[in-house]
Fold these 2 entries.
Entry 1:
Amino acid sequence: MFKSNFTFQLAFLLLLPSLAIGQNIEIRVFNKTGYDLDSVLFDQFYLGKLSNDSTVFLSGISEIVMQGDVPLRRPFGLIEGKKRPFNLTPCGTKSKKVKAGSYAFDIFIYETGNEYRLYWKKHE
C-alpha cells in the first residue's frame, strides 16, 4: 500500500511541471483604431469591449498560431455605425505555432467608405 501510494505521488510530482509549462504565452493588445471596439476576439479568446487607445493583457495561453510576426487570425471587433464585411478564412501558409513568449500587438483599421477591416501589427 505504501509503495503504491508513493509511486502515485512521485508520478504526480513529475507530471506537475509539464502541466504548467503549457501556458507560457503573455499577450498585450493595443487598440489603435481610433474607435471603441465591442465584442473583440483574439483568436478564440473573448476580450469584450476595448476602448480607443486602451490595452488589454492576456495570460495563461498555451499556444497561438502566428504568420510572420502577427497572429494568423484577423482581429474581430464591432464598431457602432460601421459595416464590417465577413472575415476571410486565414491562409496557413508559412504559419507556425508558438508555445512560449511575450508578445504585443496593435489592432489597426482599414476603412473604405462605411466598411472596415481590422488587422494586426507588431507593437513597437
Entry 2:
Amino acid sequence: MTEFLSLMAAPFVACLILTGIHAYLGLHVIEREVIFVDLALAQLAAFGATLGFLWGFGLHSNEGYVIALVFTLLGAAVFAMTRLRKPVVPQEALIGVVYAVSAAASILVLSRAPDGGEELKALLVGHLLFVEWHEVLKMALLYGAIGVIHWMVRKPLLAISQDPEASFARGLRVRWWDFLFYATFGFVVTSSVEMAGVLLVFSFLIVPAVCGALLAKSIGKRLAVGWAAGVLTSMAGISASYWWDLPTGATVVCAFGVCLLLCAVIRLLLGYNEGSHPRGRDDPTGRTRRHDTAL
C-alpha cells in the first residue's frame, strides 16, 4: 500500500485537477454541441509540440509549450470568428476538418523526426504515470486562475452556450465571449495534453459532462455528477493500472468508457425516458427548460 501511494499519489491528484476544470468545460461543450472541439484544440496543441520537437526543442520544454499554445490560440480565434448567427454549415464540420488536418500534419512532421512513432504515442497517452509534484502544482495554479475567470463571467458564457440565438438578439458580443471561452479552453487543453495526452484529455472533458447530462437536470447538479464520476473513475482507473501493470493513461480512458456505460444503465433503472427526466418536467421539444439550468 505504501508503494502504491508513493507511486500513484501525484497521478491521482493530477486526475482530480483535470476532472475539476474539464467537467465544467465539458458542460459548455455539450450545450454548444461542439463535441470534438476539445480533440481539435488538443490536436492543434500536439501539432505545435511536434513542430517544436522537429525544431530541436524538447517535447515537454517551455519552448515547445509556447509553440503549442500559439497554435491552440489560433484555433480558438478561428472557432470564435466562425460562430455565425445563421451558419451555412454546422461549426462541427469545421472543427472536424481542423482536427483531421492537424492530426495529419503532426504525422507528417513526426515522419521527419527520429523516433517519431514514440513521440506520437507520447502525445496520444501523455506521461501521467510519471508526472511530478511541481507539474501538478503548476497545473493547479493555472486551472485555478482560469476557474476564477469563468466564475466571474459565467452568466454571459452560459447564456451563449445554452441559447446563442437569444444572445445575438440581446446584443451580446458573442464572438468576443466565444474567443474568451476558447482561449481559456486552449490554455487548459495545451497544458493537459502535455501531461495526459489527447485521448485522456478528451475523456475527461466529455464523459463526466455526458454522465451529468444523463443523470441530472440543472447545470449545478450536472456539474456535481460530472465531478463525482471523474473522481471515482480516476480512482478506479489508476488502481487498475497499478494492480494489473497496465499503461495508466489508456487504463483511465477505458475506465471512463465503463463509467459512461454504468451511468446509462443507472438512467434506465431510474426510469428516464428519451428526452425527459424522472420526476421532472421538460418542454415539449425534449430540452430542459432554460430557467432550470442556472447555477
